[in-house]
Amino acid sequence: MYGGGYIFEEPNNRQVREEKIHDEPEKLAAFEDRIARGEKIEPGDWMPAEYRRQLIRLIEQHAHSEIIGALPEGTWITRAPGFKRKLALIAKVQDEIGHGQLLYNAAETLGKTREAMINDLLSGKSKYSNVFNYPAKTWADVTVIGFLIDAAAIVNQVANSKGSYGPYCRALERICYEESFHLKQGHDAFIELATGTPAQREMLQDALNRWWKPIMHFFGPPDKTSQHSEKLMQWKVKMASNDDMRNQFLDMYVPKIWELGLTLPDPLLRKNAETGRWEYSDPDWDEFFRVINGGGPCNEERLQVRKWAEEHGRWVRKALMKPTEKHTLPVA
Amino acid sequence: MLNNAITDLMTKMADDELIQGHRNSEWTGLGPVMEEDIAFSSMAQDKIGHSWALYRIIEENLGGRQADLFAFCRPENEYKCCHLVEYPNSGYDFSLMRHFLFDQAEAVRYESMLESSFEPLQQLSRKVKGELKYHTLHANAWVMQLSKAGEESYDRMQTALNEIIALAAGIFEPGKAHEQVLIDAKVYPGEKELYNRWLDRIYPVLVKASLNLPALESITPAYGGRNGQHTPYLAPLLKEMGEVFNLDTAANW
């Protein structure tokens, strides 16, 4: 998991930064040529300040999503039913923390330290995927997350792994490899409930009903309202449009859900045979923005947990520091 | 008689690892640094994996109940874990010191079973020994590092050691009549012997870390767990652990 397609940004900062792109036209042209040729940009290479800033924001949010995303599932590790599920879930959530670590390292190559990123997460300045601001109420929620949220994240991450920034792409390649196992364990646990007792099926249907809206929100607002410039696409920071990724996800997974005799809480959900695109009801984008700005059911709880971890671990981090050591950024 | 004694021994080993693994897994997402989060998750998987392997030996070789049912559906007083593993994680200092003392005890125990007359245990010990090597390496490195990293950190380590030592000594609660049967049959060398080997193992590390081992004559080991008498922390842990599984123990999850 867990990077969503949506990169949050305070809208009022954009104008100024767009202008700065054109500071060094020759270097910029060479840089854009390299990207157009499919070359990867590496940490020591020249890059426009705006490219650096956008990437830090993207990778940082992705990293935060990994460590915050570990929380709703993590609370079910101690309750996972039976040895097989318990061991799989610990391993899976552990992987997510590991992904966070890889991604923070990738973002650090751009000049922002892990501590600075964590501080921005805790202060609310830096966001993470909205989907983790919803509660995991039952075991069935864990299977829905493990199957469908991971599946959605893979759509996004596979796309991003073909982007232009070398360290991020390499981190994503490894992440996607592990994610494909996560998807299998999520799918397996999901199917177990779907083909289980009536109570298990009911539990699963209930979870699916509650998670459908956050899942539809996962890839971000519709393209027609999305605030991101074409520049990000040209620079291969953003690799696919929100609607395209959402459509790809629906195409791959809605039939799998319907096949199991489960329903989705949207009477208008259907694939248009002529356009090949999925149609659906408006998934309440007001709620999406309300949640991303702190108004979701679990925003506060998630940050409180992270704050607890930061505060209680401070003495350990302090003890690890040596006065003679200087912070150096990783190269890749 | 011998089989009952072996079942008893393996149940307490398995219960220790299951509950310690549960506690380790509670660090997932909450560690002081991400790397420690990952380390405790790793050890949680190993511990829970060892307990599963032990329960399966009980099931397959000693006529015990199905491993999941045995692990997750017993009444509290049938658990044989020691009090040390039942305590909540508290802070990283407590968890780390517990990890150090517990894993050194595990290492000593499994090493003593490399020559066990009970074949399945002998085989399992060979596998587990390789994993425990990393657990003890991890514990030693962190205890050493934190004890040498300034006053606050040192004090925390010493305080944790003082708090935990009696609980840790409780790992080696004498096993009554069963134990002599196991010693005579060369299944393992007995708790008293393991306790002494454990002291030989932890002492040099504590000395290197400049930590003072409290006077052992003055502590009262926390016994009772091996007989099903537990701290108030175990019951809620078991309730949580079995919460989903016990919704329907006949269903597949």
From TrEMBL, chain A:
A Pfam short name: PaaA_PaaC
One GO process term, biological-process aspect: phenylacetate catabolic process
Top-rank lineage group of the source organism: Bacteria
GO cellular component annotations of the record: cytosol
GO molecular function: phenylacetyl-CoA 1,2-epoxidase activity
PANTHER family registered for this protein in UniProt: 1,2-PHENYLACETYL-COA EPOXIDASE, SUBUNIT A (PTHR30458:SF2), PHENYLACETIC ACID DEGRADATION PROTEIN PAA (PTHR30458)
Protein name per its UniProtKB record: Ring-1,2-phenylacetyl-CoA epoxidase subunit PaaA
Taxonomic source organism: Chitinophaga jiangningensis
Lineage: Bacteria, Pseudomonadati, Bacteroidota, Chitinophagia, Chitinophagales
From TrEMBL, chain B:
Designated name of the protein: Ring-1,2-phenylacetyl-CoA epoxidase subunit PaaC
GO biological process: phenylacetate catabolic process
Tree of life domain: Bacteria
Pfam families referenced in this protein's UniProt entry, alphabetically: PaaA_PaaC
Any GO CC annotation of this UniProt entry: cytosol
